[in-house]
Model the fold of this input.
Amino acid sequence: MIHQIPALIEYISTFSALSAGDVILTGSPGGVGKKRTPPLFLQDGDTVEVYVEGIGTLRNSVRSAEMCTDQ
Done:
């Protein structure tokens, strides 16, 4: 990683109040997106899920900007 976790927390806390349970995402691992053969990117209608043991699943649907009406 380019920046260390304590530095990220310090920076984020300058513009957002952090609370217990907040999640800071630091990017994608190697071998995804542009680095795949062939490249593969999220598309309208895809679903992204993040699971945390003991807490549950956060599920978000991907929508293209053209599909969003509340901009």
In short: Residues 9 and 34 are 28 Å apart (CA to CA). DSSP finds one helix and two strands in the chain. The longest strand covers residues 47-52.
